[in-house]
Automatic annotation (TrEMBL):
Pfam families: GAF
PANTHER family per record: FREE METHIONINE-R-SULFOXIDE REDUCTASE, GAF/PUTATIVE CYTOSKELETAL PROTEIN
Superkingdom field: Bacteria
Signal peptide stretch: none
GO CC annotation terms, alphabetical: cytosol
Record's protein name: GAF domain-containing protein
Molecular-function GO terms, alphabetical: L-methionine-(R)-S-oxide reductase activity
Entry similarity comment: Belongs to the free Met sulfoxide reductase family.
Domain GAF: 21-151
InterPro entries referenced in this protein's UniProt entry, alphabetically: GAF (IPR003018), GAF-like_dom_sf (IPR029016), Phosphatase_reg/MetRdx (IPR051330)
Organism (species): Prolixibacter denitrificans
Amino acid sequence: MQTDFQNILNGIKPLFDASKSREQLLADICAKLKEEVYHYDWVGFYLLDENANELVLGPYVGKPTEHTHIPVGKGVCGQVAESGESKVVQDVSTENNYIACSIDVQSEIVVPVMKNGKFVAEIDIDSHSAGPFTDEDEQFLGAICKMVAEQF
Ligand code: SME
């Protein structure tokens, strides 16, 4: 399925409304992404709790998950928190350091939100499709995370 990322990005920009709380903004972005991109089945933000050295689940859309707190370094999410670099797993069955959320998930992409060179949060997307992610997903989500960074 062809995704018009530029068009979706144009639809996301107006969500950045100054009168909105950060929580609401992140929730709106999650909803929009899940709605607009066919291969995004679970979309959420994890925020870094620096003192606890763990990720805490923020707004998300999709099935509830028990993984509301993830130590830095653990799972795909924790690895991205540690490296500050995006990670794409096209087939989660091949990933050793992986935390399973649902048996429906086949692939995952995590893109960091960096503020002044420091990791502050990340967007995590699970897909029920096999190997659906391309460089375009990474660039698209990177552009969103760059805008989100201004909220931290
Ligand atoms: N699969 C993630 C855990 C978070 S859930 O996808 C919501 C991981 O390996 O870090």
